[in-house]
Amino acid sequence: MIVKESEGISELKERLTVxxxxxxxxxxxxxxxxxxxxxxxxxxxxxxxFDVTAISPNDYPEFLFWLPGNDIVIDFYKNRxxxxxxxxxxxxxxxxxxxxxxxxxxMKDSIDAAQCCKVMIDHHPFPQMIVDYSxxxxxxxxxxxxxxxxxxxxxxHAWMNKSVAECIYTxxxxxxxxxxxxxxxxxxxxIVADLLxxxxxxxxxxxxxxxxxxxxxxxxxxYCLGQKMQVFPEYNTALISLSxxxxxxxxxxxxxTEGFVNYPLSIKGICFTAMFIENKDKVKISFRSxxxxxxxxxxxxxxxxxxxxNAAGGExxxxxxxxxxxxxxxxxxxxxxxxxxxx
Length: 343
Ligand code: 5GP
Ligand code: MN
Hints:
Elements (H helix, E strand, L loop, with lengths): L8 H7 L5 E5 L6 H15 L4 E6 L17 E2 L4 H10 L2 E5 L11 H6 L3 E6 L10 E4 L6 H11 L8 H14 L10 H10 L6 H9 L4 H14 E4 L4 E6 L1 H6 L22 E7 L4 E7 L5 H9 L2 E2 L3 E6 L3 H22 L2
Helix pairs in contact: 2-5, 2-6, 5-6, 6-8
The chain binds guanosine-5'-monophosphate and manganese (II) ion.
């Protein structure tokens, strides 16, 4: 059991009563694991009759709308006053799939100001939040996997159902690239095996996530790989950049570039990729790597970001071209490390 008594699980269980007002939140631009872990926890509490609300800092891509509980998620960005009040009145605040309130964007101040009991459940390294209960494990595939462990540690077997299982499965599947990385621990598969006992249809879940793209999105992918990918074989690196004008040309909607950063990793000899997406006020960056090259450290040092060893994100206030140049200029200093990483 990864979640042990020393984390205070029994005490937390005793403190939670049906009178408790529970609020669950996650990081901005939620992905499959963020939403999957938030909604799995939502159903776990809901099934017990608790008063529970799920709040997302902003909206998320349409391919996640099918998740059970999607209709009850409140968008903080669109309902600021209401969400501030709900957070203010909460007795318990669960923070899932993030470990630094800066990742909650506009919601940061409300979370920091809340005086209630705070519980963090997360799998990112270097936690930065002050909480009452911390369930922080970097070895798990995803926060969703950790939610399963949390439920089991709470003796919550009776409150598992198909909705909880679907949400957890979605988080594990998306955070492991369909079990291609972050999934070498046998325990991940033991959990997946148990999830299948709840009549979830794993092939249908796969299709809902990965076979729901628009034609525009597919053409945008073609454009990015065909016209916008730069390969630096001497640095084992490839990048893609995308301006606002190019996004307009392909009727870009939120979530369309999800996963693009992974494609150049399929090129032989490439172990480090970056994707630069121009936003109105900044450039949003995604980094991916294979092996032991830590993209989170590079992102934190140069692009105000962070994340995992092999998947991180950051941002830049320079122009798109300047940001790409800054990145390319950094590569020579990492050449040896990248080269050794390929061996
Ligand atoms: P993605 O590239 O899919 O947006 O994010 C990859 C990973 O990096 C995720 O684990 C995400 O939580 C983390 N991440 C993305 N953007 C940021 C950021 O701006 N700051 C930090 N600290 N982590 C980020
Ligand atoms: Mn995650």
